[in-house]
Automatic annotation (TrEMBL):
<keyword id="KW-0378">Hydrolase</keyword>
<dbReference type="GO" id="GO:0004065">
    <property type="term" value="F:arylsulfatase activity"/>
</dbReference>
<dbReference type="GO" id="GO:0008449">
    <property type="term" value="F:N-acetylglucosamine-6-sulfatase activity"/>
</dbReference>
<dbReference type="InterPro" id="IPR024607">
    <property type="entry name" value="Sulfatase_CS"/>
</dbReference>
<dbReference type="InterPro" id="IPR017850">
    <property type="entry name" value="Alkaline_phosphatase_core_sf"/>
</dbReference>
<feature type="domain" description="Sulfatase N-terminal">
    <location>
        <begin position="37"/>
        <end position="395"/>
    </location>
</feature>
<dbReference type="InterPro" id="IPR012083">
    <property type="entry name" value="Arylsulfatase"/>
</dbReference>
<feature type="region of interest" description="Disordered">
    <location>
        <begin position="502"/>
        <end position="532"/>
    </location>
</feature>
<dbReference type="Pfam" id="PF00884">
    <property type="entry name" value="Sulfatase"/>
</dbReference>
<dbReference type="InterPro" id="IPR000917">
    <property type="entry name" value="Sulfatase_N"/>
</dbReference>
<keyword id="KW-0732">Signal</keyword>
<feature type="modified residue" description="3-oxoalanine (Cys)">
    <location>
        <position position="81"/>
    </location>
</feature>
<feature type="compositionally biased region" description="Low complexity">
    <location>
        <begin position="504"/>
        <end position="522"/>
    </location>
</feature>
<dbReference type="GO" id="GO:0018958">
    <property type="term" value="P:phenol-containing compound metabolic process"/>
</dbReference>
<comment type="similarity">
    <text>Belongs to the sulfatase family.</text>
</comment>
<keyword id="KW-0325">Glycoprotein</keyword>
<protein>
    <recommendedName>
        <fullName>Arylsulfatase</fullName>
        <ecNumber>3.1.6.1</ecNumber>
    </recommendedName>
</protein>
Length: 628
């Protein structure tokens, strides 16, 4: 049996190394049900990677980090709970799920149901492949005491869901088990309740496996370290405002309240900086005074304390798997729905931005055949999660269902050196920070963003519905303090106009650190002869990033995983490095439309999102003729 398990593991990893399209064409159950791997997926809520929260979880380190593979470049594609989770469970980008908010009319559980996904998503596909499926904790925002049965969430052999308006109440949560009525757990610590329920379902799954050979897929989704949220109205449908809820620091279990008394938010260069940065409302934030900094340090400590009960749960679940003799045939995945910010860029606690703190998140896996104590920098996203689980289990979605992600190489190695280097990040609507000083709604928080990471380069490029742009060189400016794209739309136009008449360079160099235009400089000044070269480099880079984002903003299927193939169907360009060849200058500058919005909206309304990519915007030998 040990030899069969090892062979099975290697085959699973091989499947996970190929593209989603290839995996779907060839995926068949690899062996009988009795030898299929189990999967335990632990999904926290709002957990950061860039404020060192993982360093305060010793059991997580012992059982998963030290025994598994950490993905340093794993990203959510929407830095907001419900849209991110829907993308995970469907393998689709948010513009294809049309679930873009946490509440109706643009998001939440009712929107998930209305879009038809309750009849066609991951747990149903896994059940078709012979898996028992279990879930404990938070599934989606907007799944409430009034709509949990209209309809019940499909696809789960056993479930115990947290329900609004009590989902984020650490000491007053409400759960709803299978098809039973909701039950309130007043004065009981919510993560401990989640842990107890998780052990109950795990015992059920283990018993069923022993009796019938059925493997299991089990998700445990505690709300820690999310803030404690008191929702003032049971139903929020299109009328969310500053008074809709109160968001306070998370509440730790009584046994953990004394921990980390001297710990503060890491004082990275982008923590409460002297100069404002970013765009839109972020660029107007005042520097935090000491009172606010002290409160945010308290908020940070509360998050770390709240994670201790999660860490204890990790320990107990792993030990239960070990005691049952199935640990070595079980994949354990640890992740979160989106990242988190406290103080960076002068922000109050929250998420929803395209900054690295909000989108670069923990993703760690251990299991048969997985390298131990290893890490990788290959780029992966939450739209890859469903394809990865499909590859591991031999399951498949309906044949007409084309996924926007691709299976993650679980050996941490790029099989051909050409795996995706991009992340398509989207956001719509409003943003509201959390905590004592963050309850302010900022409208028009709608943007498209491209995060691209190669071996020698890394960039974040953002286009806001207001017409503002951001560009950060992540190798030279990892804390995203210097916006290389002039914030004001007029300055951006001026930059393009100043470079349009220049003769093409013999080559387009990657921008050097000292030659970059200063985002704080006067956009009308003449920097002399040397500035033309640097401006040309930046402008040429922007044209290429914009072209990829143009494809991604409405992509589906392979367009999402291989956007360069849409622009260059002959395959000559696979990466940004390939695209920097000077021979493509005219194509990128004049033949591909630019990403822009016609109107800021609270949700995904295609008619307001400007031009879209079409097959006419393709490079070829005769592309000049095609665009006449």
């Amino acid at each position: 049996m040990h030899l069969l398990t090892t062979i099975t593991s290697l085959l699973c990893i091989l499947l996970a190394s190929i593209s989603t399209a290839e995996a779907q064409d060839g995926q068949q159950p690899l062996q009988d049900s009795a030898s299929k791997p189990n999967i335990l997926f632990i999904l926290t809520d709002d957990q950061d990677l860039h404020m060192d929260s993982l360093s305060y979880m010793p059991y997580l380190k012992e059982h998963i980090i030290d025994r598994g593979l950490s993905f340093n470049r794993h990203y959510c594609t929407v830095a907001l709970c419900c849209p991110s989770r829907v993308s995970m469970w469907t393998g689709l980008a948010a513009h294809n799920t049309n679930v873009t908010d946490i509440n109706p009319p643009y998001g939440g559980y009712p929107k998930f149901v209305a879009e038809g996904f309750n009849e066609d998503y991951l747990p149903l596909w896994l059940q078709e492949a012979g898996y028992g499926t279990y879930y404990v904790g938070k599934l989606y925002n907007g799944q409430s005491v009034s709509n949990y049965d209209s309809p019940h969430a499909a696809g789960w052999t056993g479930s115990d869901f947290l329900l609004d308006p009590y989902t984020y109440r650490y000491l007053n949560a409400t759960f709803q088990r299978n098809h039973d009525k909701p039950v309130s757990y007043e004065r009981k610590y919510v993560t401990d309740v989640v842990s107890d329920k998780a052990h109950g379902f795990l015992d059920d799954a283990l018993r069923t496996r022993e009796e019938t050979g059925q493997p299991f897929f089990f998700t445990v989704a505690p709300t820690a370290p999310h803030s404690d949220v008191y929702i003032r109205r049971k139903n929020i449908d299109g009328d969310f405002d500053e008074n809709s809820n109160v968001q306070s620091p998370p509440i730790p279990a009584e046994r953990h309240k004394h921990l980390f008394e001297d710990v503060v938010v890491p004082r990275t260069p982008n923590f409460n900086p002297d100069k404002p940065g970013g765009a839109s409302w972020i660029s107007r934030l005042p520097k935090q005074n000491q009172t606010k900094v002290d409160f945010n340090d308290h908020f940070y400590r509360s998050r770390l304390r709240a994670l201790q009960a999660v860490d204890e749960m990790v320990d107990s679940l792993v030990k239960r798997l070990s005691d049952a003799g199935v640990l070595e045939n079980t994949y354990i995945v640890y992740s979160t729905d989106n990242g988190y910010t406290i103080g960076q860029h002068r922000r109050q606690p929250g998420k929803q931005c395209a900054f690295e703190q909000d989108i670069n998140i923990p993703f760690i896996i251990r299991g048969p055949g997985i390298p131990e104590g290893a890490s990788t920098n290959i780029v992966t996203t939450h739209t890859d999660v469903a394809p990865t689980f499909l590859a591991l289990t031999g399951a498949r979605p309906p044949s007409a269902f084309e996924l926007d992600g691709q299976a993650i190489p679980l050996n941490g190695v790029e099989t051909d050196g050409r795996r995706q280097e991009h992340v398509n990040v989207e956001m719509w609507g409003i943003i509201m920070s959390e905590g004592k000083y963050g309850s302010i709604l900022y409208p028009n928080h709608t943007y498209k963003a491209l995060r691209i990471e190669g071996e020698a380069y890394g960039y974040l490029y953002v286009v806001w519905c207001s017409g503002e742009h951001e560009l950060y060189d992540m190798k030279l400016d990892p804390y995203q303090l210097n916006n290389l794209h002039r914030s004001e739309p007029a300055a951006a136009v001026s930059l393009r106009r100043n470079t349009a008449s220049l003769a093409p360079n013999s080559s387009v160099p990657m921008p050097e650190p000292m030659s970059m235009p200063d985002s704080s400089s006067d956009s009308s000044r003449d920097d002399g002869a040397g500035s033309d070269v640097s401006h040309t480099a930046v402008a040429s880079l922007i044209h290429r990033l914009d072209a990829v984002l143009m494809v991604l903003k409405t992509c589906s299927g392979r367009q999402c995983t291989h956007p360069w193939d849409s622009l260059f169907p002959n395959g000559e360009v696979k990466t940004l490095a390939d695209a920097l060849d000077d021979s493509y200058n005219d194509f990128f500058e004049t033949k591909v439309e630019k990403v822009q919005y016609d109107k800021c909206e609270k949700g995904y309304i295609a008619e307001s999102e400007g031009p879209v990519w079409s097959s006419h915007q393709v490079f070829g030998m005769n592309h000049e003729i095609a665009f006449e």
